[in-house]
Amino acid sequence: MLHPVDDQVLALPDKSDNMVSVRWVPLLKCFDAWAQLSWGSAVLSYTYHHLCQAVDRDTTDIASCTPLIMSWIYQRLNGYQQLNRDNHERWMMQIRAKLDRLGVHEIACTPYDAPAWDALRPVWVLTQEEQRTWLAVVPIVCFMYVRMHHVDRLKRQLGGEQQISEDPVNLDGFLAVSARGEDQHWPTRHRQWYDDWRARFTDERQITITPTQYPAMPTQQYFDWW
């Protein structure tokens, strides 16, 4: 039944590996409406939520778009690629030690302008509406999951000068929401956050990118704040 829309659903897997949540079924009432949903923001919200849960020491598995996470790591963190499964536990310990000592110079904050990425990017991504979506500091939502899109902290990755950021919005209270046993219409229950997402094109939600010469290193003022 979900075959026509499996690209979107497979980007939001749970820990079962072979089952799909029934929460997707009501969205199949209208395929035209399905195509108009912001799947990119939903995937990010879902992934951020489960990344936050994965830091619990008792967590042994993760439900999220792990290929997206791995792709970012391989593109942005040099030397963190595991070539095979040999000595996996030792490799993981080495990676944890490296992350503890990770310096700002080791993160490749390059703009998304590589020819390889351009070849994979669909035409609709270049539309003004889509560009303005990803330059907005807004909540990103997926049913009961609510996280913040703090693009104001990633200006270097967009080829801009990084200023000192405002304090992030604390949404830790949503990490305890599992929706088990709840029959909720989440856009109504979380109306404030859904409304904030719909307001993403307003000027006060948009960030300003001040182009700078690559590599865009943080200023001393930013280092002091960090």
TrEMBL record:
Pfam families: PMD. Residues 12-226 form the Aminotransferase-like plant mobile domain. InterPro entries: AminoTfrase-like_pln_mobile, MAIN-like. This is Aminotransferase-like plant mobile domain-containing protein. It comes from Stylosanthes scabra. The lineage of its organism: Eukaryota, Viridiplantae, Streptophyta, Embryophyta, Tracheophyta.
